[in-house]
């Protein structure tokens, strides 16, 4: 049909294109096709018919004119876009899984393993926090090698279960459980007095116990912030109270389980006991203090026959994450189970420092995956170590009659 006739009829009857075509008996298919063509031409600046359309015919009429065809086209386009989006998301998911599996494989291949097969018969080892996680696996392996193992734990019930399990799996019955709560200065003194009274030699002291609280600041019965009290001040006092026994047993070793998370923190010497601090951050601070303490302790014990080394066990799937509340624990659990070390893997560097002949006489170092690892310059500052030492002595209430290092 000539274009001018459409114009003329529109102008004369004032009807929509749809009405015109409907009354003319055209098929629905042709109506939509021509309507689309007309609208396309109407929107073109070169289509002269626009000059002849009456002013009363607005763009909305044109939209109604082709509503049938545009809805169908939009529906088809939306389906195609949706399918493309799904394909993109699926591809991203597959790529992500491949990358994660590659990362897991890389982590597995680069794990440090303790290759030492040194016998520990005749040796006595104290391990704090040995009722779970890497402490438990460290105790199991040392018992397997014949050592007398003392499980220094706060939860005696759980520790007794671990003791029986270790005896059953290793055949070594020289496994003892003793009460030790590193957040309590009284408990530490009672434990040390018991050890000094009943144990004649101490070859290895492993500071393994640690705690982390993500929410809610807590203070110990001694007025110490709980995380700092358990992770730093407790081991500091215990080391002092057992140092004479360690010196008499030389060559002996002190192994401190730290963390690479120390790199995220710093020490505020004006507030070394931050009872109002952010709990999650204080865990990093406590590990910073562990590292500084290990270096200063090594300097003070130089030439005594007692070596001191600190280590990062890796990110471990252990009980320390149980304090994370729901629902944050759900994604964390997936990450932990997928990519963190098992307690057996996490215990390898501790075992290496406790048993290997390769580190005989090595002191004041930091290890990761059974290899010596560099430290940040801040923690190596002797002035910082000395000041932390002096402040810690005051906060743990060292008495004149206590052993001093």
From TrEMBL:
Transmembrane segments: 55-77, 84-106
Pfam families for the chain: adh_short
Protein name: Retinol dehydrogenase 14
InterPro entries according to UniProt: NAD(P)-bd_dom_sf, SDR_fam
An example Gene Ontology molecular-function term: oxidoreductase activity
The entry's keywords: Membrane, Oxidoreductase, Transmembrane, Transmembrane helix
């Amino acid at each position: 049909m000539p274009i001018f006739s459409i114009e003329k009829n529109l102008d004369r009857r004032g009807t929509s294109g749809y009405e015109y075509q409907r009354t003319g008996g055209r098929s629905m298919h042709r109506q939509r096709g021509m309507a689309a063509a007309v609208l396309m031409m109407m929107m073109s600046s070169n289509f002269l018919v626009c000059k002849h359309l009456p002013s009363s015919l607005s763009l909305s009429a044109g939209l109604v004119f082709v509503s049938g065809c545009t809805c169908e086209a939009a529906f088809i386009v939306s389906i195609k876009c949706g399918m493309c989006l799904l394909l993109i998301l699926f591809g991203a998911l597959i790529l992500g899984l491949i990358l994660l599996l590659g990362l897991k494989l890389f982590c597995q291949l680069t794990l440090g393993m303790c290759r030492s097969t040194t016998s520990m018969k005749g040796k006595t080892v104290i391990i704090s926090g040995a009722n779970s996680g890497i402490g438990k696996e460290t105790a199991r392996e040392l018992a397997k090698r014949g050592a007398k193992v003392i499980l220094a734990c706060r939860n005696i019930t759980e520790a007794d279960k671990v003791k029986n399990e270790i005896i059953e799996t290793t055949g070594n019955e020289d496994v003892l459980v003793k009460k030790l709560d590193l957040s309590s200065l009284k408990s530490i003194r009672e434990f040390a007095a018991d050890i000094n009274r009943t144990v004649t030699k101490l070859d290895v002291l492993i500071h393994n116990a640690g705690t982390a609280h993500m929410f809610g600041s807590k203070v110990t019965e001694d007025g110490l912030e709980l995380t700092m009290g358990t992770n730093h001040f407790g081991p500091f006092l215990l080391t002092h109270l057992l140092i004479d026994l360690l010196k008499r047993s030389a060559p002996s070793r002190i192994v401190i389980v730290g963390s690479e998370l120390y790199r995220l923190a710093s020490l505020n010497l004006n507030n070394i006991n931050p009872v109002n601090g952010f709990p999650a951050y204080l865990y990093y601070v406590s590990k910073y203090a562990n590292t500084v303490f290990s270096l200063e302790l090594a300097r003070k014990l130089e030439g005594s026959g007692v070596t001191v080394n600190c280590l990062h066990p890796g990110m471990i799937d252990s009980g320390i994450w149980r304090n994370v509340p729901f629902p944050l624990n759900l994604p964390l659990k997936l990450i932990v189970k997928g990519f963190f070390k098992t307690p057996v893997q996490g215990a390898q560097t501790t075992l290496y420092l406790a048993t290997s002949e390769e580190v005989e006489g090595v002191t004041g170092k930091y290890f990761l995956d059974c290899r010596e690892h560099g430290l940040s310059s801040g923690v190596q500052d002797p002035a910082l170590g000395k000041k932390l030492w002096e402040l810690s002595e005051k906060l743990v209430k060292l008495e004149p009659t206590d052993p001093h290092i």
